[in-house]
């Protein structure tokens, strides 16, 4: 498995498992659990969830899927901005730990910016770290100016990742945020890497993938995986699609293919407002 280094030096898989909307449909539950377990078997041992997803149903399903295999997993979950206060963070963390049926979270993220001052959230994260409830903390959906503010707050520079919308049709972060994060060696967790399946129907990508001998999903993921310090977290609740997506790791796009993708899906010419889903 290709890996990405956190600022601490710890290596995590560059291919992780997204879980938004997982656990919502009873009839799909068994296949969703089997898909996550198949991901672990294949070395995709990073799982991304959030207290928000299905009001805790995603965390509960993840807890079931990793039962008996906790030590193999790098578990990522997120706290709602309205829970990101001194009192709210430890309470939300306890609820997540209970649903996930574990005693620790590997990476705890602030889901997006809310009204609680960053310094307060960071202090609460640091206390959880001290108590051994979380191993690392980080952020999601923070733009460059937010990031600078976060890093200036006491203890904020110790963050482990920023989880951001990033795919061939959402390249805005390349304008200013991505280079800044790279310089600080903070990994990007690229969410919605196949644009929630919309990208897979894009005629330009379909044609490119066919010529390259890949499926559109593999081409979209291989493009992200070609970038330094980027972790992809595609979501699927089906083993067959997981196998297809994991196939992206077997391809390495060459210079000519990367140039072609730049022509088909041009990078931004400068800083862009941060997009989120
Ligand atoms: P995504 O991974 O780009 O796309 C997921 C969708 O694509 C699902 O409907 C899935 O359907 C389908 N799909 C996946 N692989 C496919 C394939 N090979 N062929 C056809 N369809 C395929 O979108 P996402 O779920 O928004 O993003 C991924 C993860 O990032 C989330 O699950 C979540 O963990 C995280 N996320 C974080 C934030 C944030 O604010 N931090 C926001 C959005 C997402 P099936 O399941 O039916 O296969």
Question: Can you offer a commentary on this structure?
Answer:
The chain has helices at residues 29-41, 57-65, 88-100, 118-130, 144-152, 177-183, 203-212, 216-225, 239-246, 255-264, and strands at 3-5, 11-13, 16-18, 46-48, 74-79, 105-110, 134-140, 162-165, 188-191, 230-232. The two termini are 28 Å apart. The relative contact order is 0.14. The strands form two sheets. Strands 3-4-5-6-7-8-9-10 form an eight-stranded parallel sheet. A two-stranded antiparallel sheet has the order 1-2. It is built from ten helices and ten strands. 37% of the residues lie in helices and 15% in strands. It binds NADP nicotinamide-adenine-dinucleotide phosphate. NADP nicotinamide-adenine-dinucleotide phosphate binds next to α9.
Descriptive tags:
single chain, alpha/beta, 277 residues, binds NADP nicotinamide-adenine-dinucleotide phosphate
Short description:
The chain has ten helices and ten strands. With 277 residues, the protein is an alpha/beta fold. It has an eight-stranded parallel sheet. Strands 1-2 form a two-stranded antiparallel ribbon.
Average residue-wise pLDDT:
98
**Number of separate strands:** 10
Contiguous helical run count: 10
Return the structural class.
alpha/beta
Uncertain stretches: none
Q: Radius of gyration in whole Å, from Cα? A: 18 Å
User: For the report, how would you describe the main beta sheet?
Assistant: 8 strands, parallel
Regarding quaternary structure, what we see is single chain
What is the string of SSEs from the N terminus onward?
A: EEEHEHEHEHEHEHEHHEHH
Strand content: 15-25%
End-to-end C-alpha gap: 28 Å
Strand order of the largest sheet: 3-4-5-6-7-8-9-10
Which molecules other than protein and nucleic acid are bound? Answer: NADP nicotinamide-adenine-dinucleotide phosphate
Identify the overall geometry. globular
Give the helix proportion (percent range). Answer: 25-40%
């Amino acid at each position: 498995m290709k890996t990405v280094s956190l600022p601490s030096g710890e290596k995590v898989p560059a291919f992780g498992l997204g879980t938004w909307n997982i656990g919502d449909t009873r009839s799909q539950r068994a296949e969703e659990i089997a898909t996550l377990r198949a991901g672990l078997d294949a070395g995709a041992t990073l799982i991304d969830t959030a207290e928000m997803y299905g009001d805790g149903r995603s965390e509960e399903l993840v807890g079931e899927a990793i039962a008996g295999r906790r030590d193999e997993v790098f578990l990522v979950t997120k706290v709602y901005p309205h829970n990101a206060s001194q009192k709210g963070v430890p309470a939300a963390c306890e609820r997540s730990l209970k649903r996930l049926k574990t005693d620790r979270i590997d990476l705890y993220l602030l889901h997006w910016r809310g009204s609680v001052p960053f310094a307060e959230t960071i202090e609460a994260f640091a206390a959880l770290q001290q108590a051994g409830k979380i191993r690392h903390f980080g952020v999601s959906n923070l733009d460059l100016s937010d990031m600078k503010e976060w890093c200036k707050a006491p203890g904020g520079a110790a963050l482990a990742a920023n989880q951001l919308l990033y795919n061939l049709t959402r390249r805005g972060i390349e304008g200013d945020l991505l280079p800044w994060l790279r310089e600080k060696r903070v990994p990007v967790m690229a969410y919605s890497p196949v644009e929630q399946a919309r990208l897979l129907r894009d005629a330009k990508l379909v044609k490119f993938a066919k010529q390259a001998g890949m499926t559109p999903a593999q081409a979209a993921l291989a493009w992200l995986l070609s970038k330094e310090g980027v972790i992809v977290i595609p979501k699927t609740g089906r083993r067959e699609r997981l196998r297809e997506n994991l196939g992206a790791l077997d391809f390495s796009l060459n210079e000519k293919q990367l140039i072609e993708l730049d022509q088909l899906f041009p990078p931004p010419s400068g800083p862009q407002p941060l997009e989120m889903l």
